[in-house]
Amino acid sequence: MQLLDGTACSQQIRQEIALEVEAIVAAGKRPPHLAAVLVGDDGASQNYVGMKVRDCEEVGFGSTTVRMKASTTEAELLAKIDELNSNDAIDGFIVQLPLPSQINENNVILAIDPKKDVDGFCPENVGNLSLGLPTFVSATPNGIMELLRRYEIETEGKHCVVLGRSNIVGTPIAVLMSRNTNPGNATVTVAHSRTTNLKALCASADILIVAIGRTEFVTADMVKDGAVVIDVGQTRVPDNTRKSGFRNVGDVDFEQVKDKCSYITFVTGGVGPMTRASLLQNTLKAYQRR
Ligand code: NAP
């Protein structure tokens, strides 16, 4: 079994980006700039935005965090998005999800200028992804593809089972894995909560990508010998032994499954850091396109 080291891989990507930023600045131009909009005081969201800002600092990007109170109305948030859309100093921005219940997430996604949509969530970018046109691939699927690419994992002709069909992970990774690219060219099955015979289906996968948000759902009997297993799941569970009071648990029972796999990610240092690195790649791309 080989552990797919998302921390090391993402570090490599950050170094590559930092070199590009150095060259940009040396040429007398301003560096790329990412803005993050944070609505409310959800602990996990604050944490994620904080990490994204630190990532920007590390590679030499500028960054802006826009903090809005939990009672922000949809109209107020849409007005802020308008401002960011027309602010020439900002190359790309994200609105950290989830949003408070009074705000319709779809309306927010629709309001973001596709050229600044570095999360790759808006219809134009999702459509371009489906058509294989230049786009911002959303961060988590992009990070998974990058991990497969950098470890030179053979995907062509393999059976890839994607567990979960969310708009941000399951659906786009299924599209990417089935495209005529490398990595890609896999035969993809998408499974979800209504799929019957899930265990047997997962056990038939050469590549199993799991994004369902159910702790340690995938057990040894669901994994084929020699399979590649990518665990996207990240659920916070209370843990009094930790300073934070919680730990992240993946969708795969790592201890049970690891010895059956050729490659596997762990909940920590796996897909998460690759997701963060992808956001930086998209921000650089947004800058270069302008
Ligand atoms: P989501 O929107 O929560 O949707 C979950 C998907 O899993 C749905 O398609 C659902 O099926 C399916 N599902 C739920 N229970 C199932 C079951 N028992 N059997 C089969 N399918 C089941 O998904 P998400 O936003 O993609 O998040 C999934 C997990 O990935 C979460 O733990 C999240 O925190 C994590 N995540 C991690 C990163 C990272 O960077 N590491 C990034 C994004 C997400 P239905 O459609 O039928 O309801």
Structure, described:
The protein has 290 residues and is of the alpha/beta class. The protein folds into two domains: 28-113, Rossmann fold (3-Layer(aba) Sandwich); 139-272, Rossmann fold (3-Layer(aba) Sandwich). It contains ten helices and eleven strands. The protein has helices spanning 6-26, 43-59, 74-86, 105-111, 123-131, 139-150, 170-178, 198-203, 254-257, 271-289, and strands at residues 2-3, 33-39, 62-68, 92-95, 159-163, 187-191, 207-210, 227-231, 235-238, 246-249, 261-264. α1 (6-26) runs parallel beside α10 (271-289), α6 packs across α7 and α6 crosses α10. The N and C termini lie far apart (43 Å). The protein binds NADP nicotinamide-adenine-dinucleotide phosphate.
Brief account:
The chain is α/β, with parallel strands linked by helices. It has 10 helices and 11 strands. The site of NADP nicotinamide-adenine-dinucleotide phosphate (NAP) has 22 residues, from helix 10.
